[in-house]
Amino acid sequence: MATAAPLARLGAWLRAGWRAPLSSSKWVCAVIFVVGVLMGIFGIWLIRRMSWVGDLISLGFPLVAIGCVVICIGCVVRREPWMVVALFAGLGLAVAAAVVMPRLPDATAHPVRPLVLVAANMLHDNLRTADGVADVLGQHPDVLVVSELNQEADGLFSAAFPYRYVTVPQLKYANYAEGVYSKFPLDLLDPPSGLDDQFLRVMVHAPAPFILYAVHLPRPTIGRISGPHSVSFAQFHDDVFAIDRLARAESGPVVVAGDLNLSDRTSGYRALLEGRHDAVRTRWAGTTYVGGILWESLALRIDQIFIPGSWCAQNGGNFHVGGSDHNGVRSEIGACR
């Protein structure tokens, strides 16, 4: 009985504001807006603790935010209760923040004697390979990681760099390979076992030597697995965490770069970021998968460059690659001053 009166007053307050104009129900709407924000924050917190299932759900965050905006606009047009607008506005704001925050600039100090590292997915059946190669070389890379490398692109890149390693069997027989090109000498190291064959582990003898993980992880797929370069979301989750463990076990600095097929809203991204820098985020980091309007609506930033936490980066960002369904990424990286 002690709580009945306060609950009754709360109910009366909400009912009074249900059909009231905004001018007379603004405080009710303010409370409902805060409730919507808190609901969104709690939901995101919960989703982030659901392993690969949460990663899958997080891919739809942009659509949830867009849906909230559509509902709010529809309510205003139809003169629906302002409290509904306030609720979905708060929820949409929280979800939109979860999409935006991993893209915000995370600037470091300037690196000493930086090198330009570029990672690009060329699309294995690219009909404009020469244009795409020109776009990549226009970034003036010192070290280049290429995913979905075909024979034409390999020939053009090989002419521009003195040092090169590619996954040769894949390039020869499937026209679908991973490649590393460099102005600095390279040593090919043994790749880890148990992962997709689109993985090169290379020592780069730059002014600040480092081990480069040039990676093209298979695409996580719902339902039936089709082809050798797709896996379940559960397997993809395990593969990303395996790469994180391998990199942390190396004796020297490690740079992880390539088409990781890894959204910046997932647990795998947060694991790779722990103790490292996302070298693309020296400025606003844009969407990199541009494979059509549906995919672009999911705002997938899946091409990455991770550098050690003791290193610095500048002039990061993405760029157009002719004929590809990905934007490339680049950054100037090196030891800090």
Cα(first) to Cα(last) distance is 67 Å
Percent helix: 40-55%
Averaged pLDDT, please? 91
What coarse outline follows from CA principal-axis ratios? elongated
**Strand sequence of the main sheet, in spatial order?**
3-4-2-1-14-13
SSE class: alpha+beta
- Percentage of residues in DSSP E strands: 15-25%
Number of strands: 14
Number of helices: 11
Reading the helices and strands in chain order gives: HHHHHEHEHEHEEEEEEHEHEHEEE
SSE blueprint:
Elements (H helix, E strand, L loop, with lengths): L3 H15 L3 H26 L3 H8 L2 H17 L4 H19 L14 E7 L7 H9 L5 E7 L1 H8 L4 E4 L1 H6 L3 E6 L3 E4 L9 E6 L5 E7 L2 E3 L8 E3 H17 L4 E6 L7 H7 L2 E3 L14 H5 L5 E6 L2 E9 L8 E8 L2
Parallel strand pairs: 1-2, 7-10, 8-9
Antiparallel strand pairs: 1-14, 2-4, 3-4, 5-6, 6-7, 10-12, 11-12, 13-14
Q: Please, could you describe this protein's structure?
A:
The chain is α+β, with helices and mostly antiparallel strands and 337 residues long. Helix content is 41%, strand content 23%. It contains 11 helices and 14 strands. It has helices at 4-18, 22-47, 51-58, 61-77, 82-100, 129-137, 151-158, 168-173, 233-249, 267-273, 293-297; strands at residues 115-121, 143-149, 163-166, 177-182, 186-189, 199-204, 210-216, 219-221, 230-232, 254-259, 276-278, 303-308, 311-319, 328-335. The strands form 3 sheets. Strands 3-4-2-1-14-13 form a 6-stranded mixed sheet. Strand 13 (311-319) and strand 14 form a beta hairpin. Helix 9 packs parallel to helix 10. The mean pLDDT is 91.
